[in-house]
Amino acid sequence: MANYRPVIVQSLPKLGEKVTKDTLYWKNYKAPIQIKEFGAVNKIDFSPLPPYNYAVTASSRIHIYGRYSQEPIKTFSRFKDVAYSATYRGDGKLLVAGSEEGSVRLFDIGGRAALRQFDGHTKAVHVAGFLSDKYRIVSGADDYTCKVWDVSSASEVISYSEHTDYVRCGCMSKLNADLFVTGSYDHTVKMFDTRTEKSVMTIEHGQPVECVNLFPSGGLLVTAGGRYVKVWDILRGGQLLVSLRNHHKTVTCLCLSSSGQRLLSGSLDRHVKVYSTTSYKVVHSFNYEASILSLALAPEDETLVVGMTNGILNVKHRKHEGEREPLHRRRRPAYRTFVKGKNYMPKQEDFFVSKPVKNYLKKYDKLLRSFQVSKALDAVLEGPVRKNPPEVTVAVMQELKRRGTLRNALAGRDEKQLSILLSFLIRYVTDSRFAPVLIDVAENIIDIYMPVVGQSSVIDKQFLKLQNLVEKEIDLQEELLEVLGMMDALFATMARKQTTPLNKNEAVSL
To answer: What stretch of H or E contains 136?
Structure first.
């Protein structure tokens, strides 16, 4: 029996990542510094004044970190239970925070004990912040109320009870000292004016609201809840401008860049998405090792701080121009170690002994050698992506097609196996590197499983998705052909015949 020849996996060119200005800008951070906190980090807030320290609220403590310090330079720990939403005042001298106890506390950055304590809520206070006049505080709690407090007299100014569920987020207008916005788990966002007794605007987000943020101009409002990030036009009475759904899990926090041209959102899916505020498209993405609860950007985007559910504080500092990170290379054997003896010429009296090289077959090669074509295809589809990249899977399909057993390998599959196969097709059928092979595979699958369409809702959805994907690709190809025809006609009109001038010495005969 002849020796088995392993499947040849063609080396296809990799599709390069599109490098944009945003990619270069947001990748220009050093390796992250990780700081372990005592609990989940629920709020990060930067001081508005240099040196731009930031307050981290986690568990029953508030830690103040310097920009480059890995240890807290100040700690507020006078809470009996969990602290929430520590926020700086506009001058950076005072700090306000809510607590699980239902009280709101005001701290002086230079001291340790609370300057004021505002009692009036009956449940945990998750929202606390200063109005832009710096003398009033807004708080929102799980008792469905939000209150405005006067700092000097430590008294309640006004209370609102319009929400029907927990009030978990809020933000204050920087242009108008009487306006603030709250978000609740009752799926609504309300704008209040302290000069009135009722809310002046109500917006239906559609999911429990986790975070709200006002643009610096005060005309646009961003809300986050569920998997959606929505932008509303306040000047048009709360009209919805755009609804973004780029996360796979609940969006928990929002942040604007220093210029206001980029919007950042963090989610429980461990991703931070960066959007352009002109096109509202994702221009960059960061990945983290745990679900994200809070994030903040320092002025001029010098520092990006992310707080996670596992109590880890991830801090990234921007690289300055001309600064390069030192290369820590592990010392390896010298080059001469590897080439030693390569150029040795055996003498006449020498005996040359060659060591036989043993070739180890992959799992799919072993199955193909024993003609188990269906199991060979399963081995490359269900295996880890690192060991079986798409090039390997397409190479096995090409080998099955060459043998004439592709249809046998595709037939007789249950719902789970067919779903995995269709997912692979949906992901790579429009890739120009794999399209010639995968189109034949898709046609065979449709011929085999068309009689049983309608028996599984999961498979039916995947077939419809594959159909829409192919139709969209066909439309794009037709548009490209039209553009190519236009360009051909344009180039044809631009091409002119070059007239050859007569030689001066030649005589023109009439």
So the answer is: strand 136-141
Unique residue bearing structure tokens 């372990």: 36
Q: What are phi and psi of 365, to 5 degrees?
A: -70, -40
**CA–CA dist 307, 326 (Å, integer):** 27
**Is 50 exceeded by the pLDDT of residue 43?**
yes
Q: Which of 117-121, 130-134, 314-318, 382-386 has the weakest average pLDDT?
A: 382-386
Give the integer Cα–Cα distance in Å for 181 and 192: 6
In b/e form, how buried is each residue of 463-483, taking b as 16+ CB within 10 angstroms? beebeeebeeeeeeeeeeeee
Beta bridge partners of 103: 119
Nearest to 270 by CA among 253, 245, 256, 283: 253
pTM of the model: 0.67
Whole-number Cα distances in Å, 457 to 460, 463, 464, 483: 5, 10, 11, 39
Nearest one of 200, 202, 199 to 186, comparing CA atoms: 202
Average pLDDT over residues 377-391: 82
Q: How many residues does the chain have?
A: 510
Q: For residues 128 and 85, is the Cβ–Cβ distance under 8 A?
A: yes
Single-letter amino acid, residue 234: I
The two tokens of residue 474 are 């066909």
User: Residue 162, Cα to own-chain centre: how many angstroms?
Assistant: 34
| 41, 308 contact by CB (below 8 A) | yes
CA distances, 176 to each of 90, 171, 195, 216 (Å): 14, 12, 12, 11
The CA distance from 281 to 273, in Å, is 10
pLDDT for residue 70: 84
DSSP bridge partners of 317: 303
For residue 434, give the 3-state DSSP assignment: coil
Residue 397 half-sphere exposure toward CB, CA atoms < 13 A:
24
Query: Using CA atoms in the order 415, 421, 423, 428, what is the torsion angle rounded to 10 degrees?
Result: -170
- The DSSP-derived string for 143-160 is TS-EEEEETTTTEEEEEE
Arithmetic mean of pLDDT, 111-132: 93
